[in-house]
Design a protein that fits this description.
- The protein is mainly alpha-helical.
- The protein has two domains: 180 residues, Growth Hormone, Chain: A; 190 residues, MFS general substrate transporter like domains (Growth Hormone, Chain: A, Up-down Bundle), CATH 1.20.1250.
- The chain has 16 helices and no strands.
- The radius of gyration is 20 Å and the shape is globular.
- The relative contact order is 0.14.
Length: 381
């Protein structure tokens, strides 16, 4: 990949994840400020994982069937911006519901389509993938910290302007990308249904779904968990920043790790480390040094696992199936897995208390490891 093209994909991921970071982090505060009740806020925010189940598969199918992945990426980016514009005037629950539904229907296409285009050009090179993907993490943390400070000073009413500006930049970034022709296939790819009937493929998606379910203990409950145990908002922000910084470091230097151990071993190790990480968060919340160490492990439990998943996907989903493979990964892992994990942990928190969320997450990670062994065993790396 030419340096200029790598910069274009890096810029796209930076602004896309900047939008995702600032909007998903602070949207609940905006909805509450507009008079929504707690159950209504919960419904509106639940549309994010729900539409991750639907949207990626719809747009992945359209992109692969048409062969126009870049055109579909640009069209969904523009449509997301149009849908987001309604947030400025929506002041009732029905209006916000439809705005969130359509916004997330279109934004859920951005990651799988963008990564399908990027991976086609990179020819599956994990080193180059990591050095580009880290800019998505950088955009997320920059938006949460920088825009969070702005919102603290000037009020939550600025959120639509900040998140909307990032969507405008996302649209512009899609028009800087240039698609490249995929390598010709020496043999015809298997039909999608035949790929999905493979036991190792099914095991892979179960494993990644459980891994994301485990991480819902962080995405949905970590800030509240720390607050319950007496940590200040400043410390909470620093803990989040530390985790994202560690994942950025891993993405940048991951090539030697994958070169030495392979995707299968990296994935399994990341999941076993996840068992330890989540169990210790639940057991040692009062020990800040332990929590700091566990945040550093985000480099393995998220970044290493994510890259290993992307590499593994390409064994079965390539060429004309690449966008749908990426879409299935987002919808099954983050949509279905995230939704199941969030619901299960909500029940655990209510019934058994905050620490139980992390013990449950450790069990999810252990289950993900068990299924990962079955996903990778037929294909040693």
């Amino acid at each position: 990949m030419a340096p200029v093209q790598r910069a274009r994909y890096s810029g796209f991921l930076f602004v896309y994840y900047a939008h995702a970071g600032v909007f998903t982090t602070f949207a609940s505060l905006l909805f509450a400020a507009r008079g929504m009740s707690a159950p209504q806020v919960g419904i509106l925010m639940s549309l994010i994982p729900v539409m991750r189940i639907v949207g990626p598969n719809v747009w992945g199918w359209v992109a692969d069937r048409s062969g126009q992945r870049l055109t579909v990426l640009r069209a969904t980016a523009i449509a997301a911006l149009v849908a987001f514009a309604t947030i400025f005037v929506a002041d009732s629950f029905p209006a916000l519901f439809w705005a969130m539904l359509f916004l997330n229907l279109f934004t859920s296409a951005q990651t799988p389509l963008g990564e399908a285009l990027m991976l086609t050009e990179m020819r599956g090179d994990v080193a180059r993938y990591g050095k580009v993907r880290l800019w998505g993490s950088a955009g997320f943390i920059a938006a949460v910290l920088g825009f969070g400070y702005v919102l603290e000073l000037y009020g939550i009413h600025l959120l639509p302007w900040l998140a909307g500006a990032m969507l405008v930049l996302t649209v512009l970034a899609t028009f800087t990308i240039r698609a490249v022709a995929p390598l010709p296939h020496t043999s015809a790819p298997l039909p999608l249904g035949q790929v999905l009937r493979k036991r190792e493929v099914q095991a892979f998606f179960i494993s990644t779904g459980l891994a994301v379910a485990a991480h819902m203990s962080l995405y949905a409950y970590y800030s509240l968990f720390l607050e319950v145990h007496g940590y200040s908002k400043t410390v909470i922000g620093m803990m989040w920043s530390l985790g994202v910084l560690c994942e950025i470091v891993f993405f940048n230097f991951q090539a030697p790790v994958f070169g030495r151990f392979g995707a299968a071993r990296v994935m399994q190790a990341a999941l076993l480390v996840g068992c330890l990480r989540f169990a210790l968060i639940g057991a040692a919340a009062e020990f800040s040094a332990v929590l700091v160490a566990m945040q550093c492990l985000h480099a393995l439990t998220f970044a290493a696992h994510h890259s290993a998943s992307i590499v593994t996907l390409q064994r079965w989903f390539s060429g004309p199936l690449l966008a749908r493979g990426q879409a299935l990964f987002i919808s099954l892992a983050y949509g279905v897995g995230g939704s199941i994990g969030g619901l299960a942990m909500a029940a655990a928190w209510k019934q058994f208390g905050p620490s139980s969320v992390y013990y449950l997450a450790a069990l999810f990670a252990l289950g993900a490891w068990w299924w990962a062994r079955r996903a990778t065993a037929p294909h040693p790396v």
